[in-house]
Write a structure and sequence with these properties.
Chain lengths: 789, 244
């Protein structure tokens, strides 16, 4: 050990103490660590998007799944389908499937429907009563009696006498008409046969399952999908069973991501091993790659002390930033390994390392101020891991690396100054290309539609398309209006109020809400009181007399409508219509976390979603659940945050650069690869018709962080009058090659999100590297940057 | 996450699928059961004195085979309804025709004027009071599709299919009279007690149909001047009906 190196090496004890303390903290943190794999932390606090995800996670609404039975040959019949469904029901796993939802029994359907008529008083409004009053006028009664008589002469009239005697005025058409409206506009083409929902063609059947698996839970989704696939594979000959469920998306996305990550891992390993064999041939280089992993592990533990439930995606993204941390290690490794005096070598590179850290951290420091919990976690965790990696590179790595080694090609090649001279034309070319790139990049759009990041297989996509095409009555997509309350009466009352509020926007049937058919208990009571008041003894007596007169000429007997007059005095009973009421609840009432949710439906259009969100801005009990609303919420959140985050980032980076370089031109050159990298990344996305989205925003941040390192390496090398394969430039080459190996492996990914990460990072980093290698030296030469020149 | 109609929408929709626009579900169910009554020919009260015996599979196959030769039927009809809500017996007269594979018309002439025609996917209704033709498509309405299926099943002789939903017994061998009673659990069982069908000569057409409701009312259909496999005039299918 040389004397000059002495000041570094005696600090071993202090370093050991610090490392031990940090390790203990990290271990303590690991005991508190909980990994949150949901999307929830990625969404802004108190935002509509976050409420949507929470709704989908917690609500009983989102736990349904369908098994779609189809006959696959001409020999099968409905009986074949029903037998297959019966057999499947016997094998349902009660741990995963709470029940198979069945339609009301056909035998009781008539009684159920008639039972609903007993609730007419609760459902009919003042307007209805006004209409009914008009029907009781003698002329109208006469007309009505003729209509009744006409009905009796029709083929179906044979069976209408029973109904007619209970409803001579046609009140049932008001009650059942609303029920039909409630379901027909968005319903399925199904018939109830033998207790199953059957397609009118008789060759398809759907078995609806109420599951205990939420589509936002990976494990339960995998378990459910495995079970459904097992059921599907045991379909009898001539029948196919296809699962249709949100959980299929969750499970398949997870599987594809894991497969892609494994493939990327294998390719990365091969790349790194080849690089090691060809370039370094020193086992100590493993420390360079190990250091960021250790730093991230320690940061993970310490972060868990602050945020026990850490987002899985944050952990993944933080790990991706290892690429930047590796840069520090490579820079230190090449400096010490090829040098002769670690102290001098470390002193020489220290300032540039610090610059590298600060430019990268600048972006992540800004994240600490984000409204998005996951971004805040990412900010804290990445700043911590980068700082730890930097400290490790400065104080631990030099202890492991021995000076005097060689790295292939290092030191060879032409001097950087001559290279800069040659590259002057490239500056002009680069400028032209940059302008063209900016022009193309302007075409890229921000797309908040998360469904485009859905990695389901074409087969699943086709199955779903076929299913909806076969069964759906229309092609509209619906948005949900969810109104919550602590109890059913509270939720119902609030739903009544909100639907009334929205009536100024929606036309009659455009908002499909339970309240249009079955209003809140309070309103039902109000209606019933009005109904009883309306049917006063005097009115009833007069109507009886008038009906007798009007019916006489058609031969109706005196007591033909006695059941109707009896029902006017009776109180409604839910007994007879229990199943039909339960069926209504199944569709319009959900439950989550002890709350009751009333669901209404409307067409998911830009105009509808914007209007509803605007009108319900100050109504915390209501939320809109839709793809479009989610997109709008994301876009609003991104818009609100962008200015703040960009402002903080720029301020941090500019101040850091100017403070450490004391040169505007150097600061610009350091950031030039980052600027060109992001520009090319955007242009590439635009050229490939890929949108900017939540994934590519993160990728852009990483491109900026990593490419700024290349700028620092290039400027450092220029200052040091190195060759194009000198220590600084070689660090940049190695760093970019290792990172590009990692990112380009994602170009083979099947998952759209990972593919987008691959495209974004590879294009951006490649351009950043090329800028640092070709353009920066050219500009340095042109502006006569270094005093050494 | 866009909301395609969710699975449980189906449940509600399935329940009310039989209800159409202004008519109630009950009317639709009744239509489903009764339209078949359009085609019976000739009069004969269904005998009830002979002990009933289950219809064998072979017998149903023979009936089905005999009816398979019928391509068209046209007849006048007289329908008598004894309803508790009416003081008198309701007598309905009219004309009926059907032609394979899927063309049926039922034209009431008295006491009111009313007509319904089914062709393929389309149902057309008319009555003299409104003097309007209402058009419904079977594809958009499961009830009328079921009606069409029922007509084909009853009159073109798919008796084995009918036997899946009804208990079939033989009330009389000559002329052949079959009684169809809805099986337990079927929705129609709440309304219908029995349909007795008496076949005409050679068993090639339905001669008489007696419908007994669960509530006690009885409807008898008599058919006059039945024409089997004779060309049906184009005007017969017209809605509103062609004035003869």
């Amino acid at each position: 050990m040389s004397d000059e190196a002495a000041p570094h090496r005696p600090n071993k004890k202090l370093i050991l103490i610090c490392v031990s303390a940090v390790t203990i903290l990290a271990i303590a943190g690991f005991f508190r660590l909980r990994v949150d794999s949901s999307l929830e932390p990625l969404l802004p606090q108190n935002s509509q998007a976050r409420q949507t995800i929470i709704f989908l996670r917690d609500s009983s609404f989102a736990s349904k799944a369908i098994l779609w039975f189809r006959l696959t040959d001409d020999t099968g019949t409905l009986a074949t389908l029903i037998a297959a469904a019966e057999e499947t029901k016997k094998h349902l796993n009660p741990d995963l499937i709470k029940r198979a939802i069945t339609p009301p029994g056909e035998a009781n359907a008539m009684d159920e429907m008639l039972g609903l008529l007993d609730h007419a008083g609760e459902m009919l409004t003042q307007d209805d009563l006004s209409e009914i009053e008009k029907l009781t006028a003698p002329d109208a009664l006469n007309k009505r009696m003729r209509e009744n008589y006409l009905q009796l002469t029709k083929p179906q009239g044979t069976f209408l006498s029973d109904i007619m005697s209970r409803d001579p005025l046609g009140v049932n058409s008001r009650v059942l008409g609303r029920l039909y409206e409630l379901t027909s506009s968005m319903g399925y083409k199904v018939e109830v046969k033998n207790g199953y929902f059957v397609h009118p063609d008789g060759r398809q059947l759907m078995l609806i399952l109420d599951t205990s698996a939420s589509a936002t839970s990976m494990q339960s989704s995998h378990d459910l999908v495995d079970h459904l696939n097992a059921l599907a594979s045991s379909a009898p000959p001539g029948v196919s069973i296809i699962p249709i469920a949100g959980q299929v998306h969750t499970a398949q996305n997870d599987s594809i991501m894991q497969r892609d990550m494994k493939l990327a891992g294998v390719l990365d390993s091969i790349g790194f091993i080849l690089l090691f064999i060809l370039v370094c041939r020193d086992w100590r280089v493993a420390a360079v790659f190990t250091l960021p992993i250790v730093a991230i592990g320690v940061a993970l533990g310490i972060s868990a002390l602050i945020y026990p439930p850490l987002s899985a995606m944050v952990i993944g993204l933080s790990a991706s930033m290892a690429g930047s941390a590796v840069d520090y290690g490579i820079f230190v490794y090449t400096a010490v390994w090829m040098g002769h005096n670690p102290h001098t070598d470390m002193k020489r590179i220290r300032r540039h390392l610090l610059l590298s850290l600060l430019t990268t951290m600048g972006v992540f420091v800004a994240f600490i101020f984000s409204y998005v919990p996951a971004y805040r976690q990412l900010g804290y965790m990445t700043c911590l891991s980068l700082t730890l990696a930097m400290l490790g590179s400065l104080y631990v790595l030099p202890l492991l690396v021995r000076p005097g080694g060689k790295v292939v090609a290092v030191g060879s090649g032409m001097p950087l100054h001559r290279w800069g001279k040659w590259m002057r034309p490239m500056v002009l070319v680069g400028l032209v290309l940059f302008i063209a790139t900016i022009f193309v990049a302007r075409k890229v759009n921000f797309d908040a539609d998360l469904s485009k990041l859905d990695g389901i297989s074409p087969e699943v996509r086709q199955n779903e398309a076929d299913f909806y095409k076969n069964f759906s009555r229309n092609e509209s997509q619906f948005a949900l209006l969810v109104v919550s309350g602590n109890s059913l009466p509270e939720a119902e009352a609030e739903n009544d109020r909100i639907v009334k509020l929205l009536s100024s926007h929606f036309k009659n049937k455009d908002l499909i809400s339970l309240t249009n058919f079955w209003p809140s208990a309070a309103v039902r009571k109000e209606n019933l009181d009005r109904w009883h008041t309306f049917w006063s003894p005097e009115r009833v007596k007069k109507l009886q007399a008038d009906i007798n007169v009007a019916g006489e000429s058609y031969g109706f007997s005196a007591d033909a409508f006695a059941p109707f007059f009896t029902s006017l005095a009776a109180e409604p009973s839910t007994g007879q219509s229990r199943q039909i009421i339960a069926s209504i609840e199944e569709q319009f009432i959900a439950r989550a976390s002890g709350k009751v949710q009333l669901l209404s439906y409307f067409e998911d259009t830009e105009a509808n979603v914007t209007a509803v969100r605007q009108m319900l801005k100050e109504t915390p009990s209501a939320q809109v659940v839709s793809q479009r609303a989610m997109g709008q919420a994301f876009a609003e959140s991104a818009k609100a945050e962008t200015k703040l985050l960009v402002g903080i980032s720029l301020a941090f980076i500019i101040i850091s650069l100017l403070a450490l370089t004391r040169s505007v031109i150097k600061s610009f050159l350091i950031m030039l690869p980052a600027i060109s990298g992001v520009a090319v990344m955007l242009a590439t996305l635009a050229t490939l018709h890929l949108p900017m989205n939540v994934v590519s925003v993160i990728a852009a941040v990483m491109v900026m962080a990593l490419c700024s390192d290349y700028g620092i390496f290039a400027v450092f090398s220029w200052d040091e009058s190195e060759s194009i394969f000198g220590q600084g430039m070689m660090s940049m080459h190695l760093s970019s090659i290792t990172t590009l190996i990692g990112t380009s492996s994602l170009l083979l990914a099947h998952h759209p999100a990972l593919f987008m990460v691959g495209v974004s990072l590879t294009s951006g980093l490649l351009m950043g590297y090329l800028t640092a290698f070709f353009i920066v030296p050219g500009i340095c030469y042109t502006v006569n940057l270094s005093k050494k020149n | 996450m866009g909301y395609q109609p969710m699975p449980h929408d189906v449940q509600m929709h399935g329940l009310v699928a039989h209800a159409t626009e202004s008519d109630s579900i009950m009317k639709q169910v009744a239509t489903l059961i009764c339209v078949f009554a359009v085609v019976t020919v000739c009069i004969a009260d269904s005998p009830t004195t002979q002990p009933a015996k289950p219809a064998s599979k072979e017998l149903l196959e023979k009936v089905q085979k005999d009816l398979a030769t019928v391509n068209s039927v046209e007849a006048d009809f007289v329908q008598e309804k004894e309803l508790s809500m009416l003081k008198h017996k309701l007598v309905i007269k009219g004309h009926f025709a059907m032609e394979k594979p899927d063309h049926v018309v039922w034209n009431v002439i008295s006491p009111v004027k009313y007509a319904i025609a089914v062709k393929g996917d389309e149902v057309r209704q008319w009555d003299e009071d409104t003097n309007k033709v209402q058009v419904i498509h079977l594809g958009g309405d499961p009830t009328f599709k079921a009606i069409s299926e029922q007509i084909n099943a009853w009159f073109l002789g798919d008796y084995q299919k009918i036997a899946e939903q009804y208990e079939v017994t033989v009330l009389q061998d000559t002329p052949l009279t079959l009684a169809f009673s809805p099986k337990d659990g079927a929705m129609v069982a709440k309304m219908l007690k029995q349909v007795a069908v008496t076949f005409g000569k050679e068993g090639k057409y339905i001669d008489t149909m007696v419908i007994r409701e669960a509530a006690g009312s009885v409807t008898t259909l008599h058919y006059l001047d039945a024409k089997i496999n004779e060309p049906v005039a184009k005007t017969t299918w017209e809605i509103p009906p062609h004035v003869r």
